Amino acid sequence: MHCEPIKSQFGARVTGLGPVIDLTEAEFLELRHAFELYSVLVLPDQPMDDNQQIAFSERFGPLERTISSNPAGGTAFARQSNIDIKTGQAIPPDDHRMMYQKANMLWHADSTFKATQSLCSILSAREVPEEGGATEFASTCSVYERLSKSEQAELGHLEVKHDIIYSRQIVGFEFTQKQREEMPPVRHPLVQTNPVTGRKSLLIGAHAKCIVGWPFEKGRALLDRLESMAIEPDNTFSHSWKTGDLIVWDNRSALHRATPYDTVKYRRLMQRTTVSLAVNS
Ligand SMILES: [Fe+2]
């Protein structure tokens, strides 16, 4: 296995493994260790179908079921696509289902609004546009490491309230009462510690609404400052997808966002599986 770092201690392009769907246990453990070190692993030329993606993803831990606002809600997949799941036709740009894609363009970590956090997401490129549609990644480890010792200590005591109703309303999404009841706000420690490497990171991004026990605006100012540090260009990279690419990212230590593409001209189908932190912590 060859790991080529993308940024210093953040992101690595992994080659020389053969198909990840056939990894031995020893090979998988080597890949898993690289994931802990680099937060984002880019694996080119790893075509797979849905069943193979589920089998590979389950090696990281138990899979989440996707919430009902995703077109694939209720399954192990979060579908990122402009293609209607039932008809196979392109979804019109003004269709309410495309708002889900718009929400993905905010910097976020997946599932921070759930009571049980996510370990990682695994995104498989099945159909990609000829241009546009890149995914960008940012490290929150590097934010923590650039803070003063006193601020690191202060942040270590804080909890963040994460709320998908808050983050989705920003882009105009409306939720049914049932969906609101399914997804009440949750609290998570702001500072996360990787149990393997000991590196610390920050659980921030679009779903992070406020700091527990702080006045709302004071908490927003802190969260906005931390996010602006995370997305500085030196701290991010962009991945332009090719069909068959696979990316595994750590939802404890990396933010990501989608970028636009011409949804009328091109088809795009990305299948995401999301691994729960339930038995990994
Ligand atoms: Fe996401």
Structure overview:
24% of the residues lie in helices and 27% in strands. The protein has 281 residues and is an alpha+beta fold. The protein has a single domain (2-276), classed as Double-stranded beta-helix. It has a seven-stranded mixed β-sheet, with helices on one face. It has a three-stranded antiparallel β-sheet with strand order 12-6-14. Strands 8-7-11 form a three-stranded antiparallel β-sheet. The protein is globular, with a radius of gyration of 18 Å. The protein starts with a strand and ends in a 5-residue tail after the last strand.
Short summary of the structure?
The protein has helices at residues 25-38, 50-57, 99-103, 141-146, 149-155, 164-170, 177-182, 216-230, and strands at 2-7, 10-15, 40-43, 77-81, 118-127, 135-139, 159-162, 186-189, 191-193, 200-202, 208-211, 236-239, 246-250, 254-258, 269-276.
Topology overview:
Elements: E1 2-7, E2 10-15, H1 25-38, E3 40-43, H2 50-57, E4 77-81, H3 99-103, E5 118-127, E6 135-139, H4 141-146, H5 149-155, E7 159-162, H6 164-170, H7 177-182, E8 186-189, E9 191-193, E10 200-202, E11 208-211, H8 216-230, E12 236-239, E13 246-250, E14 254-258, E15 269-276
Parallel strand pairs: 2-3
Antiparallel strand pairs: 1-2, 3-13, 4-15, 5-13, 5-15, 6-12, 6-14, 7-8, 7-11, 9-10
The chain binds fe (ii) ion (FE2).
